[in-house]
Batch of 3 targets.
Target 1
Amino acid sequence: MKPKRIRCEIYHDNFQNYRKYGIPKAQLVIADIPYNIGADAYGSNPMWYNGGDNSNGESKFAKKSFFNSDGYFKIAEYMHFCSRLLKPEPKEKGKAPAMIVFCAFDQIHTVAEYGARYGFKNWFPIFFCKNYSAQVLKANMRIVGATEFAIVLYRDKLPKFNNGRQIGEDGKPIRGTGKMVFDWFAWERDGKEIPKIHPTQKPVGVLKRLIEIFTDPGETVIDPCCGSGSTLRAAAELGRNAFGFETDRNFYKAAQEKMLAGVHAKQAEDEMQEALW
């Protein structure tokens, strides 16, 4: 039987232009929206100072935002297009698509409200616990943040959910299979094999866990604001089709040449194998 090739593509373009690329509809849209922290983006990070030492004076990152695009990001427009990127609502239970949006804690209800305007009537939050904090400059002044937040949005039916449950020959779940999935996850940092490209880059391991829960192999994951390309790498390594959009030329180039180099090499190998059939 001819093997089915997985596609993984990143486009140097706005996600609003998705139609011209002919990409399939997604089972899962997953993205990280601007956190609206503006000029305080590096406020609790040692990068605010030269060499991470306040005695060396402020660095070029002081009083700077992470991205030039933060100021004109429109969440309503984002929700409008994400609703179109997702598969239509299926008739069957257990197959519905979902969207995951990483955001700041105080953005959760705003994201949910805008989602509802574009058909995402339901949502639930998920939390990520770290064993470290980027707020090192405040470590001796107050309790520091060591969590990340996201919201899972869906239309009507509960989204596809994989927890290891097995189905017997009679079509019924096998007792004792399947694990409870909590609404919090350990935030495990990537190893040295994963390049650090983007200031708000999410760990590949964390993204893989989410993709495993909400999709099956062969389905499609789309990241409309893909930055480093870590979501695409996570999806492709799990045998999912992966598509992303990035407007910043430097991030796009780094994602292609560093984050996705191994994925593209595997794609080329698969194409050669396919040609032999």
Target 2
Amino acid sequence: MAKKSKTQKAKASAARQQRKANRELEEQSPTPVAEATEEKKGGLFKKGSEDKSASSNDTAKSSKKDDKPKKKRFQFFRDVKSEMKRVTWPTRTDVLRWSGVVVVALLFFGIFVALLDNVIITESFSKSVGLSGQRLGFIHTCNKELHDELEVRVMYNTNGINGFAQELVLRLLTTPEGKKAVTAFKERTTRDIALNIEYLRARGLLAEEFYHGTTPRGIFVIVNRGEEELLEHYIGAVSLSFFTKTRQEYAKNYSRICVSVPHDKLVKYFEAI
């Protein structure tokens, strides 16, 4: 085998070194490139994942923000629904019955209020407490127009009510003595009226055709005697003809008398008839 020259040996050595360098470069270069590629890819994916996670977090936060108003917004309706389930609803019969009660009550009070404005209450103390000589009474009405008209007419027609009569009635209605006197008067008058009517009926003087088997009420009764005959015996009376225009001849045979007088006095005057 022929020996190589120094030049050939040098070239061969340089070639080996070159190959060795190339091998080292080949062994070293793929790893950094791959790593760089992976880092690049990882960076891209990482950034994408980070973006995705950030966007998902933002979505979750926004959804939470949206959920809170919805809960508050619809919580009221859910509460109402739960409360409505606890309600005991009336039956059809109950609704009809109570609706009828309400309608009747409204009609009653509506009519009552409408009539109240047109109701007139009158009272005369000459009959209720025996003050016939004072000619005192009152009128009560809720109708302001009627009240004002009566106030003017009473003032000019009667020139007012004397102070003595007003003070007398006030004391009779408010003081203990006055109330006691009024109570005693009513009890005594009621008893005398009943006794007087019974006496007239027993004597055949009561005009039964006007009462049809009933007992008269009040302080006046009709007797079957004419006014002139009664006046002759000093019995105060008013002919029944005064209360009619069509049957005066028939009514002259009857008279109206007052029976709210002491029983012994009435008997005394009627015994002469």
Target 3
Amino acid sequence: MNKMKQYLDIINNVLEHGQWKKTRTEFRALTTFGEVFRHNMSDGFPLLTTKKMAVKTMWTELEGFIKGMVSKKWYQDRGCNIWNEWSNPLGNSDDDLGPIYGYQWRKFNHVYDENDDGCLTRYDQLQQIINTLKTNAESRRMVCSAWNPVQINRMALPPCHVLWNVVVIQDKINLVWHQRSCDLMLGIPFNIASYATLLLLLAKEANLTPGILQGTFADCHIYENHIEGAEEQVLRNPNPLPTVNVGDFPCIYDWNSSDSILNNYNPHSKINFPIAV
């Protein structure tokens, strides 16, 4: 079975059993609570085939997170426009995204500006996980959090995927992430593919075999202006999953999104889902 059918099953469940809920945007959302996506990486790369995905955009964003980038222009210059609609609400420049995902991965709670309540100690969560993978892979403490209550008010957007955790069992590395807010039509397909890529990168960095990828989803929603596209998508049959070669790199921080190669990707046509800002 094509494992991305799990994603379509989640969409169907929300369409059939979801309840309407007000949101921070102008659109209501059909919403359920508590869904799980689970995929064995040996079955292929979990990239949605029932619509065409902007893979390069997804990889560029992940590269920015790994490098701790907080400049909107850095992403835009590389063709990634995901963050165009947002900026640091307390910043002095539209280019400033604030201490978003990558900043927390690489400099957790580090002082962001002169009015910040963060601390002077820089804690590199990603590097700590890599060190542990190479020295104590049996550890159950390899956790990376993007949710930092002290700095939420400085982020262009509070993190939707708030935490990820890796577990190694007999030379297989598994990754699970928790997502508080799940835009099922736009965000979740990107998040699945992004964390799958991160799992591949960590496996290569630590000379391990990719195992299970799992996402746990809290507030699962389909915005009312996405309903028609969602109904169209669940009628499409998933195609076989592609494979990915992340390329060769001395260490994960040298990985460039353009180095990765997507093989045998045969998606259906694109479905437009406007961003609910």
